[in-house]
Amino acid sequence: MTRDVARCVCGGWGLTAEESLCRPCRRAAVDVHGGRLAALLNRITFDHRGVCLSWSGPSTEPEAFTPRVRLSAPDVGDPHGAAIELRWFDYWADDQLIAACARGASDGEVLALAVAQAHYALGTLLVHEVGEWFTYRGRQVFPPHRPDPCFPLDEDNGPDGNGPVVLWLTYPTTPTARAADTGPTAGHGPRTDPAPVPGQEAAPPLCPTAGSGAGPADRVDPAAFGARPGHVLTLAPHGITVTASDDTTVSGVWSPRDRQGPQQETLERALHDIHGVMVLSELCGLAAHLSLDGVPALAPEPGCGMPGVPWEVRLTYDG
Length: 319
Known about the structure:
Blueprint: H1 23-41, E1 44-45, E2 47-48, E3 51-55, E4 67-74, E5 83-88, H2 96-102, H3 107-133, E6 135-136, E7 139-140, E8 166-170, H4 175-178, E9 225-226, E10 232-236, E11 239-243, E12 249-252, H5 263-289, E13 291-292, E14 295-296, E15 312-316
Antiparallel strand pairs: 1-13, 2-3, 3-4, 4-5, 6-7, 6-9, 8-15, 10-11, 11-12, 13-14
Helix pairs in contact: 1-2, 2-3, 3-5
C-alpha cells in the first residue's frame, strides 16, 4: 500500500509515503521548531528488560525526529552467550512530528503522536522477540525472518519486520490520541485497524482473559513449547498464563473450538492463542514502563480505562 502523492504545505510535489514536508520545508521547520520538539521528546522514556528508547534529532539525515530502539540481550542462536545489541527502527525517517509542529500542533497533540510512535516502535520489537523465541518442538512458530521467494539471497520480513505477524494499535477513546491513529500504514507508523475483508472474520482484539471455551491443554504437550528466556508458559484446561522475568503475569483463555475437530486444526488454534498471550504479556510490560514525565503514558492493559491513554491491540497473520 502506498500513500497518494501529496503536496507539501508550500505547494511542492514529490513527497514519499513517509514524508509530509519537502526537504527545504523540513529543514526550515527543524530550524524553527527543532528545539521545542526535542524538549518534548525528552519527556518520553522507556528502559526495561534490556530495551531502551531514544529519539533521532536534527543532526540525522534526513532531518527527522523518530523513535530509535535498542535491545541488549543474548542472541536466539546462543541463548547462554554474551548480550548483543539489536538496533530497531534506525532506518525510520518519517517526518510526522516535525510536520505537526510546523502546522501549529499543541504540545499535547505532539506528545500524543510521539507516544503512539514510541508505542509502535517498541511493540514491534517485542513482537519480533516473541517470534524469535516462541517455538514448538524446537521450531519457530511464527519466524520473524523468512526467505524471499523472489530474491533467494534476501529476506522477506513482512511490513513490521516480523514475517507474517502484523501489529495493529489503536487509541479509541482519547481525542488527543486519535490523531496518532492516522500513522502511515504504508511506512512504519502506528497502525490502525485493518479494513475487514468480505467473508473473513476480523481478528478479535487481544485483552486479558478474552474469549471463552475449554482449551486443548489435554491435546498438546506444554513441554514442547519454548518462550523468551526468563518467561514461564503455563497451559491449563481453560487458560494460558505467561509469567515474565519480573514475575508479572498475564493470562488469557482459549478461543472457542470444536473439541472433536482435527488434531492439526486444534494445534494451529492453540499456537495462535499462546502467541497472542505471549505478545500481550510483552505489551502490558511496555505499557507499564513507557513513561511521560516519569508516569506511565498508557493504560496498564488493552481495553482498560484511565489512568494513561487507553489502547487496543490486534494481531493479524497476513503480512
